Amino acid sequence: MLKGVFITGTDTGIGKTVVAAGILRHLRSEGLDIVPMKPIQTGATKDMGTEMQSTDLKFCLEAADLHPSDEELEWMAPYRYEPACSPHLAGKMAGSYPQVGRIKECAERLCERHAGIIVEGAGGVLVPINESTTMLDLMYALGLPVVIVARAGLGTINHTLLSINALRARRLDIAGVILNETEDVERDLIREDNPKAIAEFGQVPILAEIPYLEDVSKVPDIEVPAL
User: Fold this and answer.
1) How far apart are CA 10 and CA 162, in angstroms?
2) Is 46 known to be catalytic?
3) Do the bridges between strand 4-9 and strand 116-124 make them parallel or antiparallel, or are there none, so unpaired?
4) What is the distance between the alpha carbons of residues 30 and 26, in angstroms, rounded to a whole number?
5) Do 75 and 64 contact (CB within 8 A), yes or no?
């Protein structure tokens, strides 16, 4: 049985990586041997050679000062694509789609060596990852509690509640919601009310509200009670 948490979002560019890094760093500061995993990375870069690097995984590893072996790096990021687009489209262009079975196998190998994993998804809940499978199917296969990362501002109630409903339809455990401020704006009445509305209508805990970070490397430690 896998142990850990799955980080999803209501959109792309929502701050999933920042949240994953914050949770990872907190858990490791508590003495837990938890490691990150970015199963599908689009927008990968070529760093010091020709092999694609997972930028999101690299961010988390640096935040927690982790230096895994090359073997474990492959398990942490089994699918890496250069185009910054939906996983199914990136896989189609590359001629090799992400497969849930392989991702689960990599997750199991990591959990054999460590106490648990922080898995960061790509895009939102229903993003397709190949011709027949969505990110939701991957979450169901892994069976981990899910943390939803959502925007703080206008529109987030609808997006978050839709994500909650999709997860509950597959009987997945929702650990809670984290609201992440992606804009450098004043906190207004909408931003004050959104957490309350999401908690009430979604019947979920609000785990944290992260203010706008001009420097994302200064992500705060984030506690997730489910872990």
Assistant:
1) 9
2) no
3) parallel
4) 6
5) no
Kindly tell me if the per-residue pLDDT of 135 is higher than 60. yes
| Residue 37 C-alpha from the chain's centroid | 9
Q: Which residue reads 């019947």 in tokens?
A: 203
The label of the residue with tokens 């858990």 reads 27
The values of phi and psi at residue 146, to 5°, are -110, 135
CA distances from 17 to 56, 61, 92, 119, 146 (A): 6, 11, 24, 10, 14
CA atoms within 13 A on the CB side of 197: 16
Nearest-angstrom CA–CA distance, 82 and 154? 32
pTM: 0.95
Q: Which domains does the chain have, with CATH numbers?
A: 4-216 (3.40.50.300)
Euclidean distance between CA atoms 142 and 125, whole angstroms: 14
Q: What are the start-end ranges of the H helices in the chain?
A: 16-29, 55-63, 70-76, 87-94, 100-113, 135-142, 156-169, 189-202
Residue 30 token pair: 């508590």
Q: Which helix (H) or strand (E) holds 45?
A: strand 45-46
Note whether 149 and 122 are within 8 A (CB). Answer: no
Q: Tens of pLDDT along 34-67? A: 999 999 999 999 866 667 899 999 999 999 999 9
Spatial distance between the Cα atoms of 67 and 129, rounded to a whole number of angstroms: 28
Which residue among the candidates 3, 16, 38, 196 is catalytic per the annotation? 38
